[in-house]
Amino acid sequence: MNALDRLATSLGRNDEGPNVELAATLAASADTTAIDQLVNALTTASAALKSDAIKTLCEIGALRPDLIAPYAKNFVALLDDGSNRLVWGAMTALDAIASVEPRTVEVYVPRIVAAADRGSVIAKDRCIMTLVKLSKAGDADRMCPILLDRLADSAPNQFPTYAEEIAPVVPKSLLAKFTGILKTRLDTIAQESKRKRVQKLLAKFNG
Questions:
Q1: From 27, 63, 87, 113, which residue has the greatest number of CB atoms within 10 Å?
Q2: Distance between CA 153 and CA 49 in Å, rounded?
Q3: How far is residue 93 from each of residues 18, 88, 158, 160, 182, measured CA to CA in Å?
Q4: What phi and psi values does residue 72 have, to the nearest 5 degrees?
Q5: What pLDDT is stored for residue 188 in this prediction?
Q6: pLDDT on residue 14
Q7: Which of 58, 73, 71 is closest to 26 using CA atoms?
Q8: What is the dihedral of CA 157, 160, 163, 167, to 10 degrees?
């Protein structure tokens, strides 16, 4: 059976169950032919099938990022798509690939950042996570200035989470800038629980 025939839309379902199940099956079997079919569907299928395909590929990436790594260029091509679903799905896939092939993904950082700037909160989240992975892979000097700029401009709701994600990869040379951003943004956070998370980070870095 063609992989597309096993997607939720093809089965007349309006939930993600079949897509998640298919992803688990393909990840376990390393069925590259079926994965090829899903990737091709991202540009050739109906909108509903594209949505199912990107969901399935993201689920595969969460289980076996190496299986979707060869398709990094295909996901990058989706970053300019008019569908938010495909954009943040592509960002999610690239984030997964960054965990196994950071050098492949770091080439596309400008496009990833641009897509996050015009994208949804999910796209922005994935951008931060991807840049953190690239920092951990040895490119902190280039990635952390971008991360700190994004942190400084992030929405109050996302700020504490982003700060916590970024904190472990900040080099000593940028710690002053990092803590300065935390102090500056602290007063913009109304929710007490979120303020306490930022204060905890400040206490950690201020000794």
A1: 87
A2: 35
A3: 19, 9, 21, 24, 30
A4: -55, -45
A5: 87
A6: 87
A7: 58
A8: -160
Indicate the helix (H) or strand (E) that contains 36: helix 32-44
**In contact, 133 and 102? CB cutoff 8 Å:** yes
Rounded Cα distance, 168 and 146, in Å: 15
Give the pLDDT score at 206: 76
Q: How many residues does the chain have?
A: 207
Q: In whole angstroms, give the CA distance from residue 109 to residue 103.
A: 11
Q: Contact, 66 vs 98, CB < 8 A?
A: no
DSSP string for residues in 92-110: HHHHHHHTT-HHHHHTTHH
Give the whole-angstrom CA distance, residue 32 versus residue 177: 45
Q: What is the pLDDT of residues 33-42, one digit of tens each?
A: 999 999 999 9
Tens-digit pLDDT profile for residues 105-121: 999 999 999 999 998 89
Q: Which amino acid is at 101?
A: E
Look at residues 72, 74, 124, 122 and name the one whose alpha carbon lies nearest to residue 96: 72
Residues of the chain with pLDDT under 70: 1, 207
Six-digit token pair at 2?
Answer: 């063609």
Closest among 161, 115, 107, 164 to 134, alpha carbons compared: 107
